[in-house]
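Q: My labmate handed me this sequence with no annotations at all. I'd like to see what the chain might look like in three dimensions before we decide whether it's worth expressing. Could you predict it?
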Amino acid sequence: MSNSTPATDNEKKKSKGKRSQCSPSRVLHIRQIPNGVTGAEVVSLGLPFGKVTNLLMLRGKGQAFLEMASVDAAVSMVNYYTPATPHLHNQPVYIQYSNYKELRTDNQHNQAIFSKFGFVLKIVMFHKNNQFQALLQYADAMHAYYAKMSLDGHCIYTGCCTLRIDFSKLTNLTVKYNNDKSRDFTRIDLPFGDGQRTMEASLSTPFATQNTICPSYTGPPGFAPALGFPQGAGPSVLPVPGALGPFTVTTSAAPGHMTIPGIPGNSVLLVSNLNPEVSLIGGTDAITPYGLFILFGVYGDVHRVKIMFKKRGIALVQMADATQAQLAINYLNGQRLYGRVMHATLSKYQTIQLPREGQEDKGLTKDYSNSPLHRFKNPCSKNFQNIFPPSATLHLSNIPPSVTVDDLKNLFTSKGSTVKGFKFFQKDCKMALIQLGSVEEAVHALIELHNHDFGENQHLRVSFSKSSI
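A: Here is what I predict for the chain of 469 residues:
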């Protein structure tokens, strides 16, 4: 940060006793952050409410400053988390408006913007169509998703060098030389090739192991100076056009997995205040392992679900990794489900145990580890780009040509939904938007109709939409 770096003395004083109220600002002060929490985890708190444009971690103080793209986004975030305190690593964290109206990024120690969101494996820079472009490969697909959501439209320097980021079609970068045009941070043995050496030789060594930074850097742990990215294992890629030209970042992960090395934490959620007494049309129970699998599966790949045998209003949901678990908490904690406000937090359990043979369970524990309905098993899936909060408008896809507007309206009406609006996409009649009477109605409809079988092995795909009709 520059000389305007927030001095946290005043903030620290406010953390003791009754805190004074600051006027709304797009910079939020987050305190009581446990040790080991990463920048990506802090950023995940803000993503459901809009674009995150900057982050400053004060690790020694257990604090952070998170800058949203707009004051409205920050207000939504504070209003949401004030009655429903968020948790990181099983510990509550507290969010309030900061006295600062923006976080400045003039100092080069804070220019390593991409390293805040995960481990960067490879970078390739090139010119195409008279524009400077780059491909950047993360260790994991979710890292790249965080980077895209937070940095698209972000200025590298104040007021200039605006990044334009998208996902690349590539799943892996091939790097032959470590020089000023390309670098594989996982291999220090690569030759220089024909490129001129503009980077100090001493910078090669810190990149040899995970979570290391340049020796000359004195900023917060876990951040590196400009283009000094920590390493990890595994692939990931995105494209980023900016003021200097399109800038590309690549993302991919091992098939069926989105494990993020370096982000510790639990992947099992405790979901409570469920309504076990309400039934669907036809008399079937509304709260089922499959229903929770479908709902939480919007925000990650659900491996197991367990509804408590003696307390049917409580369930455990095991996500593929801790980051997905945090995403699910951010989006679903406080959401109304079948007439009750659902609570979602991290569980003390590290895994959901399947029932032993002969143990009475009544089908309340299910394993979905190998389900074909996982939305994020394909590292190049567009689902990574389309994760939105629950909304009254649903995005429908994979609609057969024979299905009409009335067919779809009648389908949703048969499940108790009130259809307020409907439209097919002009360029693709396999997709449509349907607006229902409320967010809660849309949540119920998604649970009941995602993967609806139209016959001939054609199944409806349902997601929350960021748009309205």
